[in-house]
Design brief:
The chain is of the alpha+beta class and about 140 residues long. The chain has a single domain, classed as Roll (2,3-Dihydroxybiphenyl 1,2-Dioxygenase, domain 1). Helix content is about 15%, strand content about 40%. The protein contains two helices and nine strands, in the order E-H-E-E-E-E-H-E-E-E-E. The protein has a nine-stranded mixed sheet with strand order 6-7-8-5-1-4-3-2-9.
Length: about 140
Amino acid sequence: MPHLIYSDVAKALAWLTEAFGFSEYYRYVGPDGAVGNAQMYLGNAWIMLGSRRHGDAGAIEGRPPQSLVLFVADVDARFERARSAGAKVVSPPADCVFGERQCEVEDPEGHRWFLSQHIRDVAPEDWGASPARPNSPQA
């Protein structure tokens, strides 16, 4: 799943809806009132949006403003495999409040990869996000 970084996620949500017909699945609003992260879909295609202001990948000068999320069955095994192959560890595997176990690595060319494993179902509102559409498809 592509993870795109924007300076203003709220504006990106509106533009992607208007320009391409994406629908919002959820948004997470930070303590400052700005949208920090969001997930959108168009048919079977899903994208994540992150905020440059909230420290997501792409916030560092010279890095591409996107990363990839790779969904795997065993994040710990994939993490060790990537690390053994020379990936730079950005963050080791950890359980996340939104029901996934994730880590982040960087490949030799500087691309960021999130490895993610679903570990439990958690409704967006249970971890601080707000679902955009009550009848939206499940991720």
